[in-house]
Amino acid sequence: MSGHPGLEPMVARAEPNIEYPAIDIGVDPGTGEPLRVRVGATAVCPARRGGAGNTATLPKTLAPADLTVEKALALLK
Fold first, then answer.
1. Which 8-state DSSP code applies to residue 16?
2. DSSP secondary structure string, 22-47?
């Protein structure tokens, strides 16, 4: 052993500071706000700007590649 703690604990310490990507998928026609897909450590979430009620967890039955603006809006309701 080299005395090095290994990658797993290093990632665990850094994880709270990792910025996960957000990909624009369109615009909410009702508000004009951008709709994004946030790719996190444990989930893919459609999101609007703002706080509570502006994110949703993608159901396991919906592949991220199949997410449309309409499906994202339905999940965010």
1. G
2. EEEEEE-TTT--EEEEEE-SS-EEEE
